[in-house]
Amino acid sequence: MKPLQPVSAAARVGYGVAFFALFVAVWSVATFGGYVQKLFLADPLTMVGEGWNLLVNHGFIVDIGMTIWRVVGGFILAVVFALPLGIAMGAYKPVEAFLEPFVSFARYLPASAFIPLLILWAGIGETQKLLVIFIGSFFQLVLMIAVAVGGIRRDLVDAAYTLGASDSSVVRRVLLPNAAPEIAEIFRLVLGWAWTYVIVAELIGSSSGIGHMITDSQALLNTGQIIFGIIVIGLIGLISDFLFKAINQRLFPWAQA
Amino acid sequence: MSKLLIDQVGKVFPARGKGQPTRALMPTSLNVADNDFITILGPSGCGKSTLLRIIGGLETASEGKILLDGAPVTGPGADRGFVFQSYTLFPWLSVVQNIAFGLREKGVPERERLGIARKWAERVGLSGFVDHFPKQLSGGMQQRTAIARALANDPKILLLDEPFGALDNQTRALMQEMLLGIWEREQKTVLFVTHDIEEAIFVGSRVVVMSARPGRIKADIPVELPHPRPYTIKTTAEFVALKERLVEEIRVEAVLAAEGH
Predict the structure, then answer these.
(1) CA-CA distance, B214 to A214, in Å (whole number)?
(2) pLDDT at residue A116 above 60?
(3) Which of A35, A42, A208, A241 has the fewest CB atoms in 10 Å of its CB?
(4) How large is the average pLDDT for residues A182-211?
(5) Residue A166's closest chain B neighbor by CA?
């Protein structure tokens, strides 16, 4: 293989599908071949059967809906606050100097470690779930947006000033549009992280959601259901990723390579 | 009456760490008449770009003052159009939107500003590309758009900082003709910084030669070639004689610069 040699679009899809097939094949050999006990790992067919059972008999679709709502709700809440703050930090250096050290510190506080505290503060209702997502996403968003906004080429700002732009229109008409595609990309990335926080929040103290189903299934030693739940999360992540990419390409044709 | 008055303008960059402060520009004075086309010629690092950026308001002078139509220059503004050596079109705007950027800032209504922008796109030969994004344009087209963008604002003076420095020779020659054509038709006051001797003579009405760092004006030579100037003028005896003279002036400075004085 030559380094960096591109592959055709068809071959790319082929390779991608091939690995999924290989993955399922190894899994099948391990389970159907009896190399792994059924107690620890369900085979693919059992998993599909259990998944069907979950959807048809146990209203799993409601759990999926709950989880999606929590992720999206908490994420949007974080964006609403992080976007103006991140822009202010990226554009104005004193704001950055004031907030950056604290935000940098806060982003390393693990969101999952806040769960016991949040249960204490907000109970085990939806507020607590949203807050976990919020804490997990907010500080990351602020910092990354600030870097995206501040990372403009100096000569573009100079050009805007020589064309008569005021300070506020340099922010609105130059810094923001310049950072927009990167900010959209940041949203895509952080939304992916938000998915891991929601499951953790649901594993502890919840009566609905994919994470709750997984803890229930653990009590019943139903590995088929657990794996199905995990795969559902993966699929939703994949779909939201595709959607984001498609939207970004439509919105920012000028930024595409 | 002078359009632009540069009076004892100098620049010293402050020391970094324990180093010495660096003087980039000796106190320099220059008088620019209305509709003059002055080229500022000098070796790299001679402070010619610094001088232009000070006039543009992008750097502050350490001393001296600059008057444009009698009013002191304090910061960047729409009355001084600036074209950079680097490609500075806004990537998220189409060609016509880029050209209209300054007009929008002035509050010109959309229909009117797009009309003006299209007219300028046509003048720089880009009428077929008005809806293209900068990344779809060649380097020469991007610089033509940048010139149109600066001129659409109708500035009192146009400042060009080695605008064709990154282009290949053939494109550069075409761009010089285009710029000269615009100047002959529109009558603008232009300051054009370059290190290319032939370019300085071909487009300029006056060539100001700057010395190696710290920069100061070493010679101020009028170019008495007739207008309009076809590209064939570059092979005439007058042109060649002027070029020889400037080569000599610049060579001394280039040697000094290379030796690190």
Answers:
(1) 73
(2) yes
(3) A35
(4) 89
(5) B105
Helix/strand/coil for A252: coil
pLDDT of residue A39: 85
Lay out the sheet containing B71-72: strands in order across: B22-33, B2-13, B63-68, B71-72
Q: Which residues of A touch B150 (CB under 8 A)?
A: 162-163
H helix intervals, chain A:
9-32, 44-57, 60-91, 93-106, 115-122, 126-150, 154-162, 167-170, 176-203, 210-219, 223-251
Choose the closest CB to A164 out of B78, B84, B93: B78
H helix and E strand count, chain B: 8, 10
Characterize the bridge pairing of strands B217-222 and B80-83: unpaired
Give yes or no for a contact between B210 and B48, defined as CB atoms under 8 angstroms apart: yes
Q: How far is B153 from chain A (nearest CA, A)?
A: 7
CA B69 from chain center: how many Å?
19
- Which of B219, B190, B204 is CA-nearest to residue B33? B190
Mean pLDDT, 10 residues at a time, chain B of 261 residues: 89 87 91 94 87 95 93 94 96 96 95 96 94 95 96 95 93 94 92 94 94 86 90 92 91 78 54
- The residue among A155, A158, A161, A163 with the most chain B CBs within 10 A of its CB, best to mutate, is A163
Torsion of CA B99, B104, B110, B116, to 10 degrees: -40
What is the least distance, in Å, from the CA of A185 to any CA of chain B? 16
With 60 as the cut, is the pLDDT of residue A42 above it?
Answer: yes
Report domain A43-255's class: mainly alpha
The ipTM estimated for the assembled molecules is 0.92
CA pair distance A218, A206, nearest whole angstrom: 14
Contact B66, B142 (CB under 8 A): no
Contacts of A255 in chain B (CB under 8 A): 91-92
Q: Could you identify the residue written with the tokens 């790992």?
A: A41
Domain ranges (residues) in chain B: 86-155
Rounded to two decimals, the pTM is 0.89
Distances from the Cα of B10 to the Cαs of A151, A160, B18, B56, B165, in angstroms?
A: 31, 25, 22, 14, 25
Domain range list for chain A? 43-255
Which residue in A has a C-alpha nearest to residue B101's C-alpha? A163
pLDDT on residue B261: 54
Q: Which member of B78, B90, B150 has the closest CB to residue A156? A: B90
In eight-state DSSP terms, residue B24 is: E
Look at residue B199 in the predicted model and tell me its pLDDT: 94
